[in-house]
Every structure is written in structure tokens, then in C-alpha cells.
Amino acid sequence: MIQIQNKFYSCVETRIQSQGEMYARFHLGTFFRGQALTVANALRRTLLGELPYLIVTKVHIDGVVHEFSSIPGVQESVLDILLNLKRLTFTISNKKFNIFSNSWLKTKVFLKIRGPAKVTAADLKLPPHLACVWPNHYIATLSSNAELACVLELAVVHPKQKISIAKNEVGSKNKIFGKVTNDVFEKGKGTESKKILTDSIEKNKKIFSLDTNYSPIRKVNYVIYELDSKKNSEYLVLEIVTDGSIEPKQALRFAFKQLTKLFYEFTQISKNVNC
């Protein structure tokens, strides 16, 4: 527990749930009666609607020209594969970086596998700074002699950014698969993955743009308890569940910073207003 004067902040419980989801319960106080509800609502709305997230934004599947086609020897349709890829959750494994300080992050992930095989997230070729939250996440099933080759483009998305996802793009070699800046390639790794990329762009160049509407926060609940009836004080119990790409304490810290920045900006503006 961290306590400053009459304020306290503590993380009471943390645990990892199914499919890599992270749960945490926090206690915050002390508030005068009515303040806890104001703080809780502001935190909840910020957590659910303002956190950046790392997701798959574009997919290229070798030999596929539209989402309603099928791949020989692959059990799933292209549309099902795209939906499975969209549900992938990634996290930045390097502790020196986080999703909030790397708002510029864009990278590529590669997949090339021959059947018979059950394709999961563990088969993806990731750059060193990325990890998949749930390696057992299902992608597709391949029969004998079937092959699945994909290039996934990942990006950090901010909810307030306006990103056009209305239609699929037909990418050119320079536009979508131009200069490869992955750490994988910069460090001399992933030669096979680079070959997959080169082979893919020479064939059909259909790029599928995926929906970027997402939130790394699965759930936010709060309960307000009375602390001292004589002093009209209360405290807040806050429960946060994330998808595993970020920790609940990171999400809560970001929400505090966002609200502080918002109020501070109005404080500065108000100094120059004459009434």
C-alpha cells in the first residue's frame, strides 16, 4: 500500500485468467462522500475508451485474391482465417519498452507452414521484442500437402485516431511491403521470413485491412465503501481485467495520467481567461 497524507493506493489481488487475461483489484481512497463516484466514472470511461493497443491491421495471404476464396487443403475459409488472425493478442516482451511509449510502433509478423498441421499462434515468426499472449490461439487446420503463407502487419492504434478501414487495399510493393524495418531483419534474423515476403509480393498483391475497433480492457467494475461515517469518508474498490497485452496496473497508471493531463490543460488555459 502507498499512502500520502490521507490518500492511499494499493493493489490487493492479481491473477492470470483463461487465455492470458490479467485481473487485478485495487483500493483507492480516502474520498469525501460523492468524490469516489466521480473518480470511478472518469477512470472507467478512460480505461474503456482511451488506451492504445497493438493489433493486426493488415494481412496478406499468399495466392488469395478475395476473402470469399478458399485455399486448397485448408479446412477454414479465408474469411475464417482472417477472423482468427484478428483475434490474436500481442504484447511487447522487452521491459524497456511498452505500448504507451511506442505509439509509433509498426512491424510485421510472418507465417509459413506445410500440412498436415494444426496452425496456432505459436507458429508465427515474431520479432524479438514481441510475444503472443496466448500461443495456443487457433488459426487453421492444414491437410497433407497444403501450405499457408501469410504476412501480418501490426501497429499500435490509438482510439482517437481516425483510421480508414472501410475497404480492402490493393497494395503495391513500395506502399505496403516496401522497406522492411523489423528488428528481426535488422539483427540478421528471419531470412526465411523475408523470403516469404518477397515471394508473396510477386504473386497476388491483395492486402486485407482488418477492423481496428478494439479495446485491451475486457472489464472494469467498481464498488464504493464507507470508510468513516463520522467524517463522511469513503474508498473505492476497482477491478480491472485486460486481454493480457498490458497489465492492469499499467492501464490504471495511464488513465491517471490522461485525466491529470486533461485537467492540467484546463488549469493552464483558465489562467489567461479574464471574466
TrEMBL record:
Keywords carried by this UniProt record: Chloroplast, DNA-directed RNA polymerase, Plastid, Transcription
Domain DNA-directed RNA polymerase RpoA/D/Rpb3-type: 23-269
One cellular component term from this protein's GO annotations in UniProt: DNA-directed RNA polymerase complex
Organism expressing this protein natively: Parachlorella kessleri
Classification via Pfam families: RNA_pol_A_bac, RNA_pol_L
Protein name: Plastid-encoded RNA polymerase subunit alpha
Gene encoding the protein: rpoA
GO molecular function: DNA-directed RNA polymerase activity; protein dimerization activity
InterPro entries linked to this entry: DNA-dir_RNA_pol_insert, DNA-dir_RNA_pol_RpoA/D/Rpb3, RBP11-like, RNApol_insert_sf
Keyword Plastid tagged: yes
Transmembrane segment boundaries: none
